Amino acid sequence: MTAGLDVALLVGAAVLLVAVGAVRFSTRLGVPSLLVYLALGVAIGEGGLGIRFDDVELTRVLGFCALIVIIAEGGLSARWSTLRPVLGMAAALSTVGVVVSIVVVGVVVHLLLGLDWRLALLYGAVLSSTDAAAVFATLRRLRLPPRLVATLEAESGINDAPVVILVLLLSRDVTAHPWWYEVALVSYELGVGAAVGVAAGITGRYALRRAALPSAGLYPIAVVGFTVLAYAAGSVLHASGFLAVYVAGVLLGNARLPHRQAILGFADGLAWLAQIGLFVLLGLLVSPSRLDAALLPAVVTGLALLLLARPLSVMVSALPFRFGLREQLFLSWAGLRGAVPIVLATIPLSLRVPGADRLFDAVFVLVVIFTLLQAGTLAPAARRLRVTAPAEAAEIRVDTAPLERMRADLLQVEVPPGSRLGGVHVDELRLPVGASVTLVLRDGTGFVPGLDTRLKVGDSLLIVATAEVRDEAERRLRAVSRRGRLARWFGEYGEDQDA
User: Fold this and answer.
1) Which of helix, strand or coil describes residue 435?
2) Is the pTM higher than 0.90?
3) Helix or strand or coil: residue 400?
4) Which tens digits make up the pLDDT trace of 206-252?
5) Alpha-carbon distance 480 to 421, whole Å?
6) Mean pLDDT of the chain
7) Among candidate residues 134, 124, 243, 136, the one with its CA nearest the CA of residue 194
8) What does residue 158 show for φ and ψ, rounded to 5 degrees?
């Protein structure tokens, strides 16, 4: 028994180290790291090293545990000031958009693949949720307008909740109750889940602000504990635990708790560990010998999703909101699918729904193909649609005591070609009191700028901004980048623009 445990630990440690190294490898090649993790799972599975793993129920449970951590990290890192303006659009995409996507995919799959309506709608339901891990990891490497990033991240954090409920309903006998009962059930689970998340977040903020824990390392653990508590309390009340996790994470992440940077760093590392374990486990579960037969259904379903369901769901959801055509097109293309659809596909598989094994295989193949296709083309698509924001400030997570005591953040701003920041003196930036350019990196050399330092294209700026003026500083930088030192004279104040 001890020898077997040693071997398991050896294999686990080796997989973990290879997966960590694969992050840098995949970033250089522009390949999403989740595909590398899935490939690792397949390589050590029955088609590779011969390790046979077919416990679907265990995979589903561990997958849900991993999603709790990933969604919690997304909530903790979301800024309320950028999330609030897009919350309506994100909620519409996560509810109305999900229903539209399920119906469109279900109709296409039923007509073209000849599947019965229940299984066809299950295809649509499983694939209607964008993947939080894939969205967070991909979008944070791109410089996009805050509104687009916030919309996609909020959607991926919220839409797991209704989708899980719908997949469970479709995996069971939905004819046992009238339609209004199912609608009321979904409404209850979402409403109570949100309320539980608010309660857990407020409780955590109150307790951690007043607690004097003996070690700084206990604060990150306590924050994660409150998000897990939100999920557990939601589940006990038969409500949406995933929505509770995201809401609690947003409230805790915007509370300026003690050791906030350490909390975010710990949550980020924990989310990476959850992603690695989840993707490797899903790769281990799949049977490569069955994937050939799943190629045609995967391609048909994926094209229906990519070309019809996602654009229609975005268009319908955006009707009450001010999103331009280029923004809608990018939102349509950037709805990344990752491990979440594969995890959701284990629900009908564990409940022994007829045809669920073919559904799982098709979803696995679809995720691999379309993740590679979409993630690799997001940057060119953003440039082609002219929705990039290369001069947008990005937060750098640094665990430093002075910044913690100042309640300040460290921002990085690039001066790209075409930006009106080029040629502007530092004092002409007119940053608010509490924000200051502390370092300029030019041609590989860093120096502390003076008020008369003229910025050049290619410069990289490090800016310290207190929490109270961070949003104002970002808007001012955005305004100067668009219209130059006289931005205010032209009525430019750095607000998000419609496409």
Assistant:
1) strand
2) no
3) coil
4) 998 887 778 878 889 999 999 999 999 999 998 888 999 999 999 99
5) 6
6) 84
7) 243
8) -95, -35
Phi/psi of residue 445, nearest 5 degrees:
-120, 130
Q: Return the SS3 of 394.
A: strand
pLDDT digits (tens, 9 = 90+) for 10-40: 767 877 777 777 666 666 655 567 777 888 8
Burial 7-40 (b: 16+ CB within 10 A, else e): eeeeeeeebeebbeebbeebeeeebbbbbbbbbb
Q: Does residue 140 carry a pLDDT above 90?
A: no
Neighbouring-strand partners of residue 447: 440
Between the two ends of the chain, the Cα-to-Cα distance in Å is: 62
Is there a contact between 432 and 472 (Cβ–Cβ < 8 Å)? Answer: yes
DSSP class per residue in 92-148? HHHHHHHHHHHHHHHHHHHHHH---HHHHHHHHHHTSSPPHHHHHHHHTTS---HHH
CA–CA gap between residue 364 and residue 280 (Å, rounded): 13
Q: According to the model, what pLDDT value does residue 197 have?
A: 94
DSSP-derived letter for residue 136 is H
The pair of three-digit structure tokens given for residue 387, joined into one six-digit string: 């929705």
Q: Per-residue pLDDT averaged across 62-79, rounded?
A: 89
CA 174 to the chain's CA centroid: 31
Question: Of 475, 473, 487, which is closest to residue 420 (Cα–Cα)?
Answer: 487
Burial class from Cβ neighbours inside 10 Å (0-12, 13-18, 19+) for residue 222 reads middle
With a cut of 80, say whether residue 480 has pLDDT above it.
yes
**Per residue, what are the HEC states of 159-170?**
CHHHHHHHHHHH
Q: Do the Cβ atoms of 159 and 114 come closer than 8 Å?
A: no
CA atoms within 13 A on the CB side of 396: 14
